[in-house]
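Backbone-to-sequence.
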């Protein structure tokens, strides 16, 4: 059974994609910030389907994580934003579809590791990619 109502899924994917891109642009170690995000209280309550947390704005979420972002910061030279977006899709879909804890997902599939698995997993659907990751 999914973690929360499907009507929230697209919004969660969109917010998480943008958050990961901003983290990649603004943080020296985006993988540790993403891991911290996955283990945060915000994610814990989102995992439970709490509408207050599912509807938080990007600024509210980043503030809870104590992450300072300059929205006009340029594209990162160090991290591929397409891969960061793909990671957001994988993490959000995996948590939603299989009703798993985001903290547990980040422990088993660390952001650094997931970033490296983009090739060849990105060539499949997100659903199929998640299944392959769960089988690893």
């Amino acid at each position: 059974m999914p973690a929360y109502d499907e009507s929230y899924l697209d919004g969660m994917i969109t917010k998480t994609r943008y958050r990961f891109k901003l983290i990649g642009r603004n943080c020296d170690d985006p993988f540790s910030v993403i891991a911290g995000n996955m283990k945060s209280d915000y994610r814990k309550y989102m995992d439970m389907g709490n509408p207050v947390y599912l509807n938080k704005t990007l600024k509210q979420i980043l503030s809870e994580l104590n992450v300072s972002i300059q929205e006009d910061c340029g594209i990162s030279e160090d991290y591929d934003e397409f891969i960061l977006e793909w990671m957001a899709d994988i993490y959000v879909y995996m948590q939603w579809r299989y009703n798993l804890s985001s903290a547990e997902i980040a422990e088993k599939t660390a952001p650094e590791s997931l970033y490296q698995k983009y090739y060849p997993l990105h060539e499949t659907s997100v659903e199929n990619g998640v299944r392959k990751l769960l089988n690893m």
